[in-house]
Amino acid sequence: MSEITLEAVNLTKKFDRKMIFKSVNFRLSRGSSTAITGRNGSGKSTLIKIIANLLLQTSGSINLHINGSAVKKELLFMQMGFVSPYLNLYDEFSGYENLKLVANIRGRGHDNIENVLKRVGLFERRNDMLKIYSSGMKQRLKIAFSILHTPDILLLDEPTSNLDTEGIGVVDDIAAEYSKDRILVIATNDEHEKSLCSSEINLNKNA
Ligand SMILES: Nc1ncnc2c1ncn2[C@@H]1O[C@H](COP(=O)(O)OP(=O)(O)OP(=O)(O)O)[C@@H](O)[C@H]1O
Ligand SMILES: [Mg+2]
Q1: Domain with 174 in it: what CATH number?
Q2: Does the CB atom of residue 20 touch ligand 1 within 6 A?
Q3: Of 58, 79, 92, 94, which sits most exposed with the smallest number of CB within 10 A?
Q4: pLDDT digits (tens, 9 = 90+) for 138-154
Q5: Residue 173 in contact with residue 159, Cβ under 8 Å?
């Protein structure tokens, strides 16, 4: 199994002149699970988007090393899975087609589409267009997206929002699996989601 480290060095984010967080440092490796916590507006979603390379930091760096070699920023998306309230899906396509699109983009995960649909409990509804999915069904599809390519790093922003008890159980299982020998990061203030992680980065102290 490859050795992986994901580190943040003096990571700082400002929007215009407003400081969101300052000098965040961490170093995560395989077998870790980390909750990013902090009050509403403290920058949890912002930090997770920066880790996923969807947003640029103001200063500092995010570095991913696999077996000691730095992974290029533009290739990070191959190693990462991401669930977020800000993730957009295609309403005019079915659940199955949405997953196929992302497998095409990555060139990976085609043979896993049925598996993940079953895992999140959407297999029966795979051919329905997303515009008729309920909010919990859309959340389940986001989770399917994030694990389609079995990434080494799984980034979850409020993963259980809109989910029922069974859906929360699916997240629990995935969190247990990914924290065992991959890297799991959850941005949350929810006590249950926090309990899925063994360490915590609290952003209240960093503003
Ligand atoms: N594009 C943007 N332009 C300006 N300010 C922004 C932008 N995106 C976020 N912010 C601000 O950055 C701060 C952090 O927002 P963020 O969504 O990261 O917080 P959060 O910790 O995830 O909050 P919550 O607990 O509500 O999910 C907030 O003050 C927010 O208004
Ligand atoms: Mg947030």
Answers
A1: 3.40.50.300
A2: yes
A3: 92
A4: 999 999 999 999 999 99
A5: no
